[in-house]
Amino acid sequence: MGRVEGKVAFVTGAARGQGRSHALRLAHEGADIIAVDTTAKVDSVPYPLATAEDLAETVRQVEATGRRIIAVDADVRDVAALTKAVDHGVAEFGRLDIVLANAGISSPAPTLEMSEQTWQDMIDINLTGVWKTLKVSVPHIISGGRGGAVVITSSLAAIYANENTAHYSAAKAGLVMLMKIMAKELAPHRIRVNTVHPTTVATEMILNDATYRLFRPDLDSPTRADFEEAARTLNRLPVAALEPSDISNAVLYLVSDEGCYVTGATHVIDAGGAL
Amino acid sequence: MGLLDGKVALITGAARGQGRSHAVTCAREGAEVIVTDIARQLPTVPYQMATSGDLAETVDQVKAHGKVALALETDVRDQSDLDETVQRGIAEFGKIDILIANAGIWTQAPFWELTDQQWEEMIGVNLTGVWKSAKAVAPHMIERQTGSIVITSSTNGLEPGLNYAHYVSAKHGVIGLMKNIALELAPHGVRCNAISPGAIKTPMTDHQAAWDMFAGHEGGTEADMIEGGYHFHALKGATFLDPQVIADTALYLNSDLAATVTGVTIPVDAGHLLLTGVNAEPVK
């Protein structure tokens, strides 16, 4: 008996990285999955975004657990596409219990030098995209009348200031109050809303030259090893970067019955970095 | 397969209430447990404290999960008591992986009327007792380069409460203590986190003085307290919560699920901290 047996979860940014890991973890624990990711281009993002093949791989891995998955190419900036994906999934699986607003981008740049497009893409995806995700999905949890759980992926960057991440940190900090207000609005429906704040996680969003340069401005062409040397100094526990599964474990706790009275909380998963 | 298979957990204040829930949950998930309690009355505490019989009942409930419990009557204010508890635990089970520093008391008075003894007992048990408990297990955890400590704070570790300044001071204090323990033990692979429970129904909170506080007058009833519990929490249907909800979060924090979580405080408060305050009795 899984810890989310028989439940249905909607996961954004599910083609790879933390999103795929969350989908798989919940499927292993008995949930069916409605997954979205986008093949739309975002010009301000300096690393390759997920592909249709990545999303197909998530489908293959979830199905290998014996659970069902509906995966749709939908952009979190597109309410119509999101609505269609969620409505289709709920029609198919008959309910919705869990929403994981995970989709996000990174595009480090100095605050005064970044283009308007870089700022706007970030806010559209990492902040407004979460609101749109919840707007189209949470009404299904409410109408189920069984309560439920929402986890929003924020970041340690919502709490600590670093150069060159003003747009990212502004979006991630904005999510904290979005979470708290939704937690308050949804408490009468027994729907819990929390944020997770990961430190550096080893995903394609992080493992790229732009992020390596963000961590090592002292080097012309830093390698992963150079990046890890700097990343390790952020953490107190002896680890350079967390694995997506480390975050999935925290998400699982928050959405399972073990977290049934936890709401409005900001859960830091940072190997002691905040200390 | 349990989340704590093969582990050994030391739980203070384990005779009843949250401590008993921790002990039984650890056992259910595969751990051997060392359970301690002072099992006698403290002079400033107005409610009946736990007894030896309560501690024996915890041991019986642990046994029902097929696990062994070593039970010791230990005062968390007494370092030599705690050191001996740790030594006996290691002698019995070979190691200690987990400490749940749970023992605590709750008494009430306006801060200017608190007696020295009320203050000293509160700080001694709820703050210094946590430091001494962690101090007792730390060298062993450092030697083994592994371990997890969970400290019971409170929503009063994050906000004030009328007429228990000593409790608020101690519960705020353990959050600072937790962060420092986490910082100092991180290089050794040992984690430390805190839980901030909302209103939990235990013998510490369910008695005449608490009923009166929720009723707003003497002669309050348990029904007044239960009604107050709904007002204390935000989540639908949540009045005073079962201690199990705190044990569930400690289970997460002590398990490998939280292997990279250290230095955090998790409120388990049914949304209490979301509620903005109003002045219920303004002086105009």
UniProtKB/TrEMBL annotation, chain A:
Q: Which GO terms describe its molecular function?
A: oxidoreductase activity
Pfam families per record: adh_short
* Classification via Gene3D superfamilies: NAD(P)-binding Rossmann-like Domain (3.40.50.720)
Keyword check for Transferase, yes or no.
no
Name this protein carries in UniProt: Oxidoreductase
**Family membership noted in the UniProt record:** Belongs to the short-chain dehydrogenases/reductases (SDR) family.
List keywords of the entry alphabetically. NAD, Oxidoreductase
Automatic annotation (TrEMBL), chain B:
InterPro entries in alphabetical order: NAD(P)-bd_dom_sf (IPR036291), Sc_DH/Rdtase_CS (IPR020904), SDR_fam (IPR002347), SDR_subfam_1 (IPR023985)
Give the GO molecular function terms.
oxidoreductase activity
* UniProt organism field: Streptomyces brasiliensis
Q: Which family does it belong to?
A: Belongs to the short-chain dehydrogenases/reductases (SDR) family.
Q: What is the lineage of its organism?
A: Bacteria, Bacillati, Actinomycetota, Actinomycetes, Kitasatosporales
Q: What is this protein called?
A: NAD-dependent oxidoreductase
| Pfam families tied to this protein | adh_short
Key words, A-Z: NAD, Oxidoreductase
